[in-house]
Amino acid sequence: MPLGNLTSQFFANVYLNELDQFVKHKLKARYYIRYVDDFAILHHSKDQLEKWKNEIDKFLTDKLKLELHPDKSQVLKIDKGISFLGFRVFYYHKLLRQSNIKNFERKFNQVKILFMEKTIDREKAVEFLEGWMAYSIYANTYKYRKHIIKLFNKSFPAEKGKAFNKKDINFIRKIKESEIAFSVQKTLFLYSKGLNVKEISENRGIKESTVWEHLANLIEHKQISVWKVLPKKKIFKIYSKIKNKDDLLKDIKERVKDKSITYDEINCVLADLRAK
Asked: Which residues of the chain fall below pLDDT 50?
């Protein structure tokens, strides 16, 4: 059965369901994630992970007639990064593996040759790049994607006078969305390092109001806690004046009647409410 085929993925999930049950119910591992044949388990104890690794290896061999890859099955510290689904995953950021970047660049050059030979049109080239963009957006690849987009526009020029089609518009929209997502994550990284709003603003050369918008976004998506951003006293005071999550900031501000509480702080508390 060919690799990458949807049928092979389906049967892999069915077959490895027994592994899921073993890890969750027998080993009782709390932090376990699997995608087809790639899986990871998190635990604070190295000894526990080593023990689980041996037990999983034995289970796979005895019950499923499979075995762990000797080179890819390792116990590692998260701060050194772990390889998962083509990414190098760290605490606060993800990188693409170099082998994946090389594979993409090889395919990019192949598509470029096909375009030059008029075997494919620009729309097909956009489809190819959209697929990679949808994948690479989940890593911290803003600068690299920006470089690739410039290279793409140079290598696959649009015909003069030709209107943008739907695929071109969607492509541009995805690029803009990925830039925003990267910017928010960069704020999270600096905030996790202990920088305050003013320091992040100065470090990144952006407005303080933009940093506050990022924090509200992170709170709403449960990446940081509002209790770490604002003093408890302010949070309780703001919450007591909110009627529902659709309240307007100005209405809440009027009810609070406290000049020390800003619209940005109210927005963060509202974000916490929306996250629930």
From this structure: 1-3
